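Preliminary data (for renewal application), fe (ii) ion complex.
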Amino acid sequence: MSDYYYELKNLFDLEELKKIALPYITEEWKQTDDFMGLISFTDKTLIKVADHDYLLQFQQRFPRLGNTLRILKNSNKSWPVHLDVNRLVSINIPIMNTGEGKITRFYEGGTQVNEWYGNFGIIKDSFQSNEYQTYVQDATPVLDYVLDKNPAIINTTKPHSVYNQHANPTDPNPRFIMAWGYTGTYEEAVEVLGNGTR
Ligand SMILES: [Fe+2]
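Predicted structure:
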């Protein structure tokens, strides 16, 4: 088993999950840069499990799945290396334009910092660690993962970043994924959700 990710091959019906996410994804969101996309759309577009019977049945079966899901857009070249705050695990669900060249990069080591300077998408600036992420400096890349045909359990206690090999300033096909939190460790999530797939 990988320490970094675990693909859930037969647990969810991906088409049902896409049906839930797609109505939220607007043309305006597609054309927003990645950083502003997080602030203007992701954080304001929480999908409530309680509103969707399809999600609710999984939460009833696996009570450690979170109450909300978030949609994330990525079309710019790179996002900083970080650790997720307040969760150890994310279930990442491919929604649109995933696949080749759209990479989740895992790292080892490095130092957690309050402030990080560099490129977050197209914006070059100082970024403060915040309620969603703690930035990590000088970590060593160890593994690239491409989310595509299956949802995957992501170990968000490992430093990770997003890298888009096909990025250009006006990418007409941004990657969209949906992230579902899970209260528990990566190992527990793999044990519990992984068994659900057999
Ligand atoms: Fe993350």
